[in-house]
């Protein structure tokens, strides 16, 4: 009898290779070269120039992320969950803007905090604000969309955390969400396990070999991660600018009012666009007619949740908490977009 696991392995490797942003980006460029050679050089030049202009931000972001991981700075976040609940909500929302977690990576940390008995209101404040912004993504957003947009996103992150935290606090006072967890903590969809929140940070990480190894590992992995996704994002942006008619975007998410903003939030919620990929894509969409408020709503909703993150959250918490998590994310994204559009 043939060993099917061996025969399936090349197929899995080939499928994984085909799903790579490098492969998809190269195939897109190849398709442009074959189908529309006249626009191949402009598309390639646009993507390359955009990636080159962002390279200094990528270098800084990769270095900062590696430093935070090597020092164990995540341990500082746990200190926000000690003391009065109101104070915890404020600190959790603010610290969420410093924690380098995406919507998937934040889940095991949340699971650990809930398992340790941290109040759901403070945990939700951190849960909502953390995936939205951190120092590296602030720089990436500013490079692609400008500092006003980046600052608006940072303010939205903290405001969404406070919004969600105090709503949960009010609901818990009425007896809801007494036991949020379904079962034991799960691993995140990004592959990382539950962080050791009791670990003490060592800011001089170079004094320890294991921390130096962590720095090297994180620097290389995050560097390749950012490079491949941003290169792919800029190829998509080049396609948007070249081939998508402005009136198409304007008809869907352009113009004033709440409808384009709500539409952008609902479309952005399940999209798996991390905070490094979304800015260049939104820059292309905004040049095609997408309103600023709709762009912010799309970015906020997409950062708070995605299909992989929703699957992990569903396995972690009870349905009421899951529904509240999604509702707060979407409503907060719409409110952020409306306020930003008005300003």
Automatic annotation (TrEMBL):
It is found in: Cell membrane. Pfam families: ArsP_1. Keywords: Cell membrane, Membrane, Transmembrane, Transmembrane helix. It is a multi-pass membrane protein. The keyword Membrane applies. The chain crosses the membrane at residues 21-40, 46-68, 89-118, 138-163, 225-243, 249-273, 294-316, 322-340. It comes from the Bacteria. InterPro entries: DUF318, UPF0718. Belongs to the UPF0718 family. This is Permease. It comes from Tritonibacter scottomollicae.
């Amino acid at each position: 009898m043939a060993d099917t696991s061996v025969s399936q392995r090349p197929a899995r490797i080939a499928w994984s290779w085909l799903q790579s942003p490098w492969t998809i980006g190269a195939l897109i460029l190849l398709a442009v070269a074959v189908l529309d050679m006249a626009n191949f050089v402009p598309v390639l030049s646009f993507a390359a120039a955009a990636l080159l202009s962002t390279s200094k931000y990528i270098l800084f972001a990769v270095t900062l992320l590696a430093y935070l991981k090597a020092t164990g700075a995540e341990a500082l976040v746990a200190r926000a969950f000690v003391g009065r609940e109101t104070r915890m909500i404020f600190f959790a929302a603010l610290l969420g803007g410093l924690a380098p977690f995406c919507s998937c990576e934040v889940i095991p940390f949340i699971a650990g905090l809930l398992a340790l008995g941290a109040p759901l209101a403070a945990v939700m404040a951190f849960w909502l604000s953390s995936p939205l912004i951190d120092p590296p993504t602030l720089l990436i957003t500013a490079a692609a969309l400008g500092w006003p947009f980046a600052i608006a996103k940072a303010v939205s992150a903290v405001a969404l955390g406070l919004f969600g935290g105090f709503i949960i606090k009010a609901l818990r006072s009425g007896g809801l969400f007494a036991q949020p967890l379904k079962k034991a903590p799960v691993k995140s969809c990004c592959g990382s396990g539950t962080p050791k929140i009791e670990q003490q940070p060592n800011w001089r990480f170079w004094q320890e070999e294991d921390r130096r190894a962590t720095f090297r590992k994180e620097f290389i992995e995050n560097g390749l991660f950012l490079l491949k996704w941003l290169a792919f994002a800029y190829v998509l942006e080049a396609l948007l600018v070249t081939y998508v008619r402005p009136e198409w975007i304007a008809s869907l998410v352009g113009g004033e009012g709440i409808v384009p903003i709500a539409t952008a939030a609902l479309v952005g919620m399940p999209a798996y666009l991390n905070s490094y990929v979304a800015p260049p894509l939104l820059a292309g969409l905004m040049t095609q007619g997408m309103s600023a408020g709709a762009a912010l709503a799309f970015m906020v909703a997409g950062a708070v949740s995605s299909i992989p993150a929703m699957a992990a959250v569903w396995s972690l918490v009870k349905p009421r908490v899951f529904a509240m998590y999604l509702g707060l994310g979407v409503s907060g994204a719409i409110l952020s977009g409306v306020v930003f559009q008005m300003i």
